[in-house]
Write a structure and sequence with these properties.
2 domains, transmembrane
Length: 264
């Protein structure tokens, strides 16, 4: 209790240093929950996991509503203790939510859908037809291609699962670094260095766009490593990042414009 009181006192006296620390703790919370959930809950059905997430979200709304009503009736030391208990409860609920989300991600990577299932079904169908035709001793060219593509998809499924988790972690890292960059740019701007603040903010936008790009790569069904791409495919990926960067800049500019119009 004494340590938490000291941390709360330090955060109230140094808010600029406390905000990045809170962001880092929240990012660690996200990463821990996703890694634990992807390793332990990948065998659960998506319906059960989605139901659990919905229940946790409703519970968070209830806790926030109850805390808002309860704080009106208490004051002084009891209010401070109740706020700490509420924050700890919300932190645990967020951790559980991220853990279940990690279970959904783990199931997506452990049971890939799309082209693998399609080629597998085509391969099994072609094998059944060939077995029933006793007079044929050789498979057709199309059936051989289906079987070859199915084997290739099955062999790369495990490797793609690891790549997808890595891309998702890079997305979270990009979002976290972008938030830290935004906080740093605000501190630099408050110190009177406007040009440096703008440069740091632009760098943060580029990092955020990179996170969105990696997220798109992670959910792409036809994911292909960069080293295996042709020159045209690499150019296409470069244009894809530029489109993501333009969309990110446009979205942030729109949010800034809306906030400026709202404050008037």
């Amino acid at each position: 209790m004494k340590l938490t009181n000291q941390l709360s006192y330090w955060a109230s006296r140094h808010p600029h240093q406390a905000i990045p620390l809170i962001i880092v703790i929240e990012i660690a919370n996200v990463l821990l929950g996703i890694m634990v959930g992807s390793a332990m809950l990948n065998g659960c059905t998506p319906a059960v996991l989605m139901g659990m997430i919905a229940g946790l979200i409703l519970l968070q709304v209830f806790v926030r509503r109850y805390a808002a009503l309860r704080l009106v009736d208490i004051t002084s030391q009891a209010r401070f203790v109740f706020q700490k208990q509420t924050f700890f409860c919300l932190f645990c609920l967020n951790l559980l939510t991220y853990t279940i989300a990690g279970g959904i991600l783990g199931r997506m990577t452990a049971h890939p859908e799309g082209t693998t299932a399609l080629y597998s079904s085509l391969s099994s169908t072609s094998e059944t037809v060939s077995n029933r035709t006793s007079g044929e001793t050789k498979l057709s060219f199309r059936e051989k291609m289906y079987q070859k593509m199915a084997r290739r998809s099955a062999s790369t499924a495990d490797g793609n699962a690891g790549h997808r988790v890595g891309y998702f972690l890079l997305f979270l890292l990009g979002v976290g670094l972008a938030m830290l960059g935004a906080v740093l740019s605000c501190n630099i701007a408050c110190s009177g260095y406007g040009v440096a603040a703008v440069l740091v903010f632009l760098l943060a936008i580029g990092v955020l766009a990179g996170g969105f790009y990696f997220f798109g790569r992670g959910i792409d069904q036809n994911m292909k490593p960069y080293k295996d791409m042709t020159r045209d495919e690499r150019k296409r990926e470069g244009r894809r990042y530029l489109r993501t960067l333009a969309g990110t800049v446009g979205a942030i500019g729109l949010l800034i414009l809306i906030q400026a119009l709202t404050n008037q």
